[in-house]
Amino acid sequence: MGRGGIGGAVAAADLENSDSTRGFVRDVKRIVVKVGTAVVTGQNGRLAMGRLGALCEQVKELNFQGYEVILVTSGAVGVGRQRLKYRKLINSSFADLQNPQLDLDGKACAAVGQSGLMAIYDTLFSQLDVTSSQLLVTDRDFRDPSFGHQLRETVVSLLDLKVIPVFNENDAISTRRAPYEDSSGIFWDNDSLATLLAKELDADLLIMLSDVEGLYSGPPSDPQSKIIHTYINEKHGKLINFGEKSRVGRGGMQAKVAAAVTAASKGVPAVIASGFVTDSIIKIMRGEKIGTLFHNEANVWDCSKEVTTREMAVAAKDCSRHLQNLSSEERKKILLDIAGALDANVDLIISENEADLAAAQDSGYEKSLVARMTLKAGKITSLAESIRAIADMEDPISHTLKKTEVAKDLVFEKMYCPLGVLLIIFESRPDALVQIAALAIRSGNGLLLKGGKEAMRSNTILHKVITSVIPDAVGKKLIGLVKSKDEIADLLKLDDVIDLVIPRGSNRLVSQIKAQTKIPVLGHADGICHVYIDKSADMDMAKRIVLDAKVDYPAACNAMETLLVHKDLNKTEGLDDLLMELAKEGVVIYGGPVAHDTLKVPKVDSFHHEYSSMACTLEFVDDVQSAIDHINRYGSAHTDCIITTDKRSADTFLQQVDSAAVFHNASTRFCDGTRFGLGAEVGISTGRIHARGPVGVDGLLTTRCILRGSGQVVNGDKGVVYTHKDLPLQ
């Protein structure tokens, strides 16, 4: 290994999103790819042309980038058996058909199938302007000491010419009794052949493509089974029971694992992955954690990973205690230094963010997600100013909420204190990292952050900028950046270290997190926000509010998704004008049953929808109570608004809508921590716990009880005179 990876599009940009245990692919140049029979053929035994085409395209891409790819393919026996069955069938008499005898000699199948299989490879590669070559070997060949030397010379010559060597065992002339059944010799199937070639040809990586995603802890069909991303022989070797062999090949998963373990022991890392995924090879070369990795240092990684996950959380807690010991002015200075560091690194932050945006666009992400990812100079300046605003807030730590004289010279105090360590899981918005970090520092908490992989470069540079100014007296591990999705499961088990989890994302994400942890979860769900226009509404005001709620920032969670209108306003000039203005802004309007029938707009499938951020659902309701019922049924308890001049209707709406934020005559876009004067927010909680709505510093604090005495004891309450008198806080 270590001949220097080619880099290029696969290894340079995408390795930012790679897993640390797959970092060795940076040094990979020569790759052996083994394709199983289940990948080459379909259920009916015929060639799976779609999968073969995707395989050849991936090999061509790697070949173009300078990687040396050697292909080991199965499937000849299967293809030959299918052809011979057909040939025997059409040459059969009626009597033969009555008593079919379709047992076929495996060597004959191999001889017939090999030419057809190679013809397909040659055709597919030729279409991609790639030259392939066929090399058939047998177990007996490798018994000749000079064969290995000659094989290496031939393969190196082909690779220098950018030719793809395609290997297969020559089953037709194998000396073993039944090569497709006899497990003896130097190699005994194409899995073991691939391992042998990887060693003989000095490969840097062996990729084995199968019909499953990798090695599982149990049957892949069992919902309780989990994929093993890194195989540890000492850990997994005796725990896994293998099922039946492949439906068409001769080995199955047990043969692949044995071959992969052998390759890893000889210094060639191996990955077993799905050949049904059209870009699995490319993803492996990007360093993404797919399939099961076999590596001779994996046992070290496994231990260090478990330690690192816990150590990261413990370090954040230790640093948070150092942070709490600082004075208010010292904590304020840290925030001001972070704001200054953001201002000083605008160009660097934008450069990394633009790389994320380009990758997201190339990957076909929705425009709304790309919009949430974007960091412009003005946005970064605004983030710096919001941090300065947080720094200027009253210090919340040790703030006394209540002071009571319990008895003479016995004083009780209830005070704010930090929660401890927060784990924030957020998607696609790198600006959230900055806001959350500032709030955590102001509230004296340690912090672990896991952002979406689509914004990895942006998150990484922001984390680096922020932690660079945290003083050594606190420790830069106060804020940890979790880069692997797989680490989340480990962190969620640390209920003895992590004190609160805040997932910012969909209801599904929040539900998944809650199901996986004992740690309290403050859920930030998706935003299905409503605006209701009552019959007494000022329509000029309604137009301003509705346009702002929908168009100001359509991708925001507090943007309007559903417009409810009193039925008396249907087909009025004011409503028609409003809808026309929405259409001019590019808003696509869908209709509920009534709106669809009366205005002929496209019908909505579900009021709890997930359409484009520039879509809006319109529906007519009978009265304010109908609007309230609709919101409580279909809304997400985020932010909802009524536009009306009727105070009674407004009060009814404000009291009965069961959402975290309920507005009267104001845009839903005001539901924001900064706009509410909280400085920033870690998210908007739609649950019903201590923090609801935009969660600022107060939501990241809990309380502790302080009791100051002068030697008092309970002693059965004898001699204690309780006064329970409120005392001034100052």
Automatic annotation (TrEMBL):
One of its GO terms (biological process) is L-proline biosynthetic process. It catalyses: L-glutamate + ATP = L-glutamyl 5-phosphate + ADP; L-glutamate 5-semialdehyde + phosphate + NADP(+) = L-glutamyl 5-phosphate + NADPH + H(+). Gene3D superfamilies: Acetylglutamate kinase-like, Aldehyde Dehydrogenase, Chain A, domain 1, Aldehyde Dehydrogenase, Chain A, domain 2. The keyword Repressor does not apply. Keywords: Amino-acid biosynthesis, ATP-binding, Kinase, Multifunctional enzyme, NADP, Nucleotide-binding, Oxidoreductase, Proline biosynthesis, Transferase. P5CS plays a key role in proline biosynthesis, leading to osmoregulation in plants. Involved in abiotic stress tolerance. This is Delta-1-pyrroline-5-carboxylate synthase.
